[in-house]
Amino acid sequence: MIGEEMRLPPADRDRLRWAALIHDVGKLEVSPKLLRKPGKPTPSEWESLRLHPEVGARLTAPLAGWLGEYAAVVVEHHERFDGSGYPVGLRGEQITLGARIVGLADAFEVMTAARPYKKASSRAAALREVVRCSGTHFDPAIVRAFLAVSTPRLRRALGPASWVGQLPVVGTAPVGG
User: Fold this and answer.
1) Tell me: the pLDDT tens digits for 33-44?
2) What does each C-alpha distance from 35 to 76, 105, 115 come to in angstroms?
3) Residue 10 and residue 49: Cα distance in Å, rounded?
4) Above pLDDT 70, what percent of the chain?
5) 3-state secondary structure of 58
6) Sorting pLDDT into bands at 50, 70 and 90, what band is 117?
7) How many CB atoms lie within 10 A of CB 159?
């Protein structure tokens, strides 16, 4: 949807969609125990986690010809607009457009999804964080396109199961009923 807002041609949006689907494939070589760890990773665990973009690029290399410039999404999706990301420290437009788009979409998903180590943020709180990080973590042009995607359009695209988890839960269910 961000690509559509940015008026990318349909062929580019298709490749972007595929690149987004496989961008974290490098996590296949990260310990599942580490991925589900309830606490903050140790420095050595962070080192292992930070290898997943390069591992992913190696795993997806056979698709690079078909993905074209969007193959770089896999290795660049943790680069930040201000150059503080990884694995290389690219900045601004050194980061491919697809990686700047997927990096923002991925960060928003991480913010709004529950993880073993954190509760999900509300959509409103995550949007505030995206705006706060515009120009540092995220390309301001991508942020503007992201913010232009309407909530109803997003919900229709993702389906009801994706937003039911955002509903507040009152009380707890009895155990052993």
Assistant:
1) 999 888 889 999
2) 20, 20, 10
3) 33
4) 85
5) helix
6) confident
7) 9
